[in-house]
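Quick one:
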Amino acid sequence: MKASTSTSLECYINYARNIPRLDPQEEQELAKKLNETGSKRYLDKLTISQLGFVVHIAKGYKGYGLPFEDLIQEGNIGLMKAIQKFDYNVGVRLSTFAVHWIKAEICEYVLKNWRLVKVATTKEQRKLFFNLRSFKSHLGRFSVEESQALAEKLGISIDTVIEMETRMEARDDSFDATLNEDGNEGYQKSFTVDTSSDIAKNIEDEQWRAHKKDKLLLTLTSLNERSRNIIHSRWLSNKKKTLNELSETHKVSAERIRQLEKEAFSILLQADRAKH
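Output:
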């Protein structure tokens, strides 16, 4: 059964890697048709084109000891959410937009499911696991010298020693554990869902802010150099300048700077409306 599962996963990975990527024009056309019709046909085509990309991202999370097929599945869920939110008018590739959604879905899965159930997974780690405690001469963690000495004695790398000691010192926290105000026995701990942070929404908001920033920078090109400098110095710079400071820079009165600032905002507003 295990061999069958492994073979199925390998087949899926090979299939995903060999799927031809869409060129930008094909991707835009499919996204536009999906937006206009909502047809599952176009959703499937866009999703399939990115399966290899999801596998590539999921590989970065294999170190947590969770099933690779589950990581891929969660990444695919993030991909489909991204496709539903994807705005082809922004001018970015789907993979660029989707990477944050894919990672967010995988990260949420890892945070909910990761436990240190596999303390020793490699041959080196298993060898070290059965010998580590007998080499400890005191309570607490090894020094660098002790780690190096143990690594040389067992013929393994010092990184393996440090990693294994970290795993053995760590422990899982039980939802059934009880604590009193001193941190010992007492009332049962209460866990509630944290609704203060929505990973997907945070990413969507971040994407939207980046899009608005790009639009602002593009719109600023409609201003002349002096007006651009005034808007940047007054509103976009970390160290904002006063009207008097700018009047000295541009050799005009502070009142004239205020007028130029007002005119610049009017031009920016018109330019922004013209883009819609």
